[in-house]
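S2.1 Query sequence (Helix-turn-helix domain-containing protein)
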Amino acid sequence: MAVRRTYGSYNDGCASAHALDLIGERWALIIVRELLLGPKRFLDIQRDIPGIGPAALSQRLHNLEEAGIAVRRKLPMPTHVTMYDLTDWGRDLEAVNSALSLWAVRSPRLPLDADMSPDTVVLAMRAHARPLAHGARSRRISLKLTDSRVADREPVEYLATLATEGTFITKMFGSDDVDALVTSTTRAWKSLIISGDRSPLESCEDITVEGDREAVRVLLDATQLQAPVQAGSPFGN
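Output structure tokens follow.
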């Protein structure tokens, strides 16, 4: 099998070119994206990335480990499960993922109707997250997202904390101290953060809200995907 040549082997010393040598192959950055919010098993990664085969996933994970971006850990007994995680350096790639999201949201070819994994929806929200206005009351919302692409998947739970210092969304497991609890499919929630239309909070059967609905609207306003409006943009008129 032919060995893939690097940009460095062509005497290109640019750091951006070296970054592409590390994460520029197909699926590599997508795998990183799916690990940004925490470790996952091999099968979970494969289910969260439709289209990737086990051989390609295994090879890319090996390459990421070899580069020092990802690490493989075996949990102690009784689980004894192998998990894949990012190193501290690998987690710094969230800034790259966010920058790509902020850039690509202006594309007239952005596949607005395509679905996303729960983590990917939340990463998009984090990329576009904005702090509350000065003097606004802080809010905490529990968000449970079920992957619309795969049947019988358990919901993934996140905690959104909104304050004047910033809006933060993290993966979590159970919290009673929240203003609202939202349960939604990824497709329905993605539509909300893209469209700006808040009426599905009242009418969509795939979204349920317990608690303060206004807090949920504040979350949507603080994380809605935004881009400069320009000709041909899906966010234009």
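The CA atoms of residues 98 and 217 lie 23 Å apart. Residues 228-237 have pLDDT under 50 and may be disordered.
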